[in-house]
Design brief:
By secondary structure, the chain is mainly beta. It folds into 3 domains: about 60 residues, no CATH class; about 120 residues, Sandwich (Immunoglobulin-like), CATH 2.60.40; about 150 residues, no CATH class. It starts with a strand and ends with a strand.
Length: about 350
Amino acid sequence: MFSVGSCYSNVSSQCTVNGTQNVTIYAPSSGWKVGYNYLNADWAKQNDASSSIQDWSTIYFEGRESYNGYFSNTDSNGNWKYYFNETQNITIKIFVRDSNYNGIAANITGVSYSLRSGSCYSEWCRQYTSATWGLIGGGVQTASDGTAIITIKAPNGLWARGEYDIKATISGSSGTGTITGSQVKVRDETSINITIVSPVNNATYNNGTFLWSMTTTKNAQCYVSIYNYYNFHNWNCGGWNVTNSSNTTSVSPQKIGACNTTLYTNYNGTSYFTFYASDQYTSKYDGSTSTWSSGSTGLSTGSTSHTYTVNITNWTVQYYGLYSYCYDSDGNSNNEVAAFKVQPS
């Protein structure tokens, strides 16, 4: 709806402009869109409607709510936190601002969450559920700079796994507003435990192949790397004291067996070598010759059992270190190691 002087478009079919006059455009009943709004106009001579001119000269203005703001993935200790487990309360920091983007004290009147689905990637299609929430420190009002940390309780004590969007509604002396744009992820944070079945530490292989075999406590995707022992030890055996091997509370017995060279005789391997295998790629480099291949490799992984037949034909006679790495769909990961020897039969 618009008006020119005392002429209103909802009353008259047209309004006449003589010379220069102000045209007043009224906000729609739902209010102006938050963001940029663009205006177009149709003009015609008073006695010749066929001479219509469309004025699309990109007149625009920005619509702002009385309050706006944003979220930060910050917990009560000021640490960045994006991941939460299924029983944790979600904490997130909010910054409330006025229409001029200045931080301001205002009341948070509601908090809701939306679990993302594969078919919805925009705010317009998200469906929010009201949350049980509170502010750290109590009350519902932000600090004078507009900040507060919101705690959101897990519904019925348990979140569904996935990515969540958080929304807050704001009110104050200037009106109301809505703040969106946050994202957190709920995942199973149970660690992956790895048991290497083969090779066993200090084993000797000499029949052309050996079986890499291991199990995990969760479904996981795994790969295996093998290095000459000298490099393997330098790259993978930190975190424990060789001269006091009893000081190993944070290191697995499997790793102690692979890394503690005092347990074995002539544990060496200085001829450069690297090998890598996943379910879709393999590569090998012996210091002079490099080979690789892509596509199905025969490595079986993705469940709790993982196997691969390693061809050691023509490998240099020496000790080698094996590094296995696994990860799951929630971003949890772990690794385990082993050491073995290759020599002719």
